Amino acid sequence: MTSDTRIVGIDVARGLAVLGMFGAHIGVIMPFDWLEPDTWSDVVSGRSSILFATLAGVSIAIMSGRTTVVSGVDLSRVRLRLAVRAFLVFVIGGLLIALGTNVAVILPVYAMLFAMALPFLRMPPLALFGSALVIAVAVPLFLATVGPLLGDPPNEGIALASDLFLNGSYPALLWIAFVLVGLGIGRLDLAARSVQGGLLILGAMLATLGYSVGEFAAATLGASSIATTEPHSGSPFEVVGSLGFALAVLGICLYASRVIHRPLFPLAAVGSMALTVYTVHIVVIAMIGASVPGEDDNSLWIIFVVVALAAASLWKIFIGKGPLEWLLAVASRSATRPPRADRLDPATPQQRNPES
Hints:
Blueprint: H1 8-26, H2 47-63, H3 72-97, H4 107-117, H5 125-150, H6 156-167, H7 172-186, H8 193-221, H9 236-259, H10 265-272, H11 274-288, H12 299-318, H13 323-336
């Protein structure tokens, strides 16, 4: 399998993450209760974006060689391509924020996470998982202790940096843990059923541990920024629980895509052009008004999902790569393309076979 070959299960999982973020942005969601099916849609809150970030790490692993990391000049080119992609995603995110919706746009932080992952590309999976564990435990404690002491930022630049790395809905200093886990997972043989089953089992265990212990801590110690499992709280319990959820979903999607490939095509189509679909849905929210959600039911969410599945499927069939994905691919390839003189045959620098 070459590095350009798509793993359908990853696209399916990414499609679920994007559609889940639709729900978090425009859905009518009530606090989760196992005994109330009407509240089960709360599963998308926080967890969809964490799944999205974890899959970013998997994508980085695929771009940098999958199970065998590229080295030398090839590694430098991969890093440059990732840096170019991060810059463009950051710009797109800034433009979406400028639309003035009530959505906490993830793309600027997503771009920062790509850039922050660059030094970790050659790290082995176990070291990546260990680093993520340390971050998951230490950073929430750091943010809870130091965050309140920082006060109001003295200027807009520091305010932006603080929002991106410390105090926003997706603090990059903490969320890099999800990317590192995804990067480690991407170094594994994702086609192996043992890996797929392991992701499901380990994910279920982590989700159970994180959420159950978190609920116990909140009930015993009183809810706080640390003792809670609330979405976007950034507590160690939410990090572990939501990461476990992401791993379980990925394991299921990798296995399901082998068993029921065709029915999952619309989801995979959305996932293969996630940046485009995400961007379009923010633009549409801006067009219909920043007051959403505000309906009494989830009909708007359903409409967004159906349109996204249909439009992405048709685009995939008749055109192929999503427009923003095409832009990122062309820009990153252009940035790393060697000068024309370097591409000539060294034996005959002035002559080339016109049929080659």
